[in-house]
Specification:
Blueprint: H1 2-6, H2 11-26, H3 30-37, H4 49-65, H5 69-82, H6 89-102, H7 106-117, H8 124-139, H9 143-156, H10 161-173, H11 177-186, H12 195-208, H13 212-225, H14 230-242, H15 245-258
Length: 260
């Protein structure tokens, strides 16, 4: 920053701006990254190949992080066309899929992710891509296509609550109720975020399997854990169909008290 302030036109200033931009990006200061690197746009051709690749990829990601997805998409596509075998290409392909998703192009995002996954080794980036592909395919109402991505991820990260949640829902949509019940039942131990919904849906899956007692147990766990939650109201309504007459009457009294 001192170099840029004191010698804004020096030859070294461009290099200083490059490194300052990378530092800002690593500090998650994305607007500042864009401002720092933008003056270098059009001049990156003079950089050596490795620096140019990093510049293109980082600048595009910073654009995306600041909500400028159309610009980011154009930048990332141009980079991937120019340098498909660059060390930065995999990161760029994942970033492209994310920006396409933000623009509502889920099919385009899935296509980008599937191309990326075809040759992507195991590791954090593959896990992120697997989740994104499974999530977007689920949103596209293609649970059968989503399933193998999510199963691979949960096998690698069995305690990832977001992945387990989406896999449980995918199993439910595919009417694989035994799998869905087990996965929903495991979620409350991993995350409070999904607890109420997971307990309710484990009960619904148990009902689908004809396991009345297991369904009642799941609903009662939910009621004890969250007496006035939205899913608790649904659970109490389900118990009205499952309980014997005397228990059903007691349940109705409790329901009217908690949800007047």
């Amino acid at each position: 920053s001192l170099l840029l302030k004191d010698f804004p036109k020096a030859t070294e200033a461009g290099l200083g701006r490059y490194w300052a931009g990378l530092c800002l990006f690593n500090l998650s200061k994305y607007a500042e990254t864009c401002a720092m690197l933008k003056p270098l746009v059009g001049k990156e051709k003079s950089m050596d190949a490795a620096k140019r690749d990093v510049f293109d990829c980082v600048y595009a990601q910073a654009l995306a992080k600041t909500g400028k997805h159309p610009e980011a998409i154009a930048q990332l596509r141009a980079f991937l066309k120019r340098a498909p075998k660059s060390k930065q290409a995999r990161t760029a392909a994942y970033a492209l899929a994310q920006s396409l998703q933000h623009m509502g192009d889920l099919k385009g995002a899935v296509s980008a992710l599937q191309a990326l996954l075809a040759a992507l080794p195991d590791g954090p980036l593959r896990h992120n891509a697997l989740f994104a592909a499974g999530e977007y395919l689920f949103r596209l109402k293609q649970p059968k296509a989503a399933l193998p991505h999510l199963e691979e991820l949960v096998k690698a990260e069995p305690r990832n609550p977001k992945a387990l949640y989406r896999l449980a829902w995918t199993s439910f949509e595919l009417e694989r109720f035994k799998d869905a019940q087990g996965r929903f039942a495991a979620l409350p131990e991993l995350s409070n975020t999904f607890r109420n919904e997971a307990l309710f849906l484990s009960g619904r899956a148990a009902e689908k399997l004809g396991k009345k007692d297991q369904a009642i147990t799941a609903y009662k766990r939910l009621i004890a854990a969250a007496p006035v939650a939205a899913f608790t109201e649904k659970a109490m309504a389900r118990l009205a169909f499952l309980y014997a007459p005397k228990e059903a009457e007691q349940n109705l009294v409790l329901y009217e008290k908690q949800f007047p």
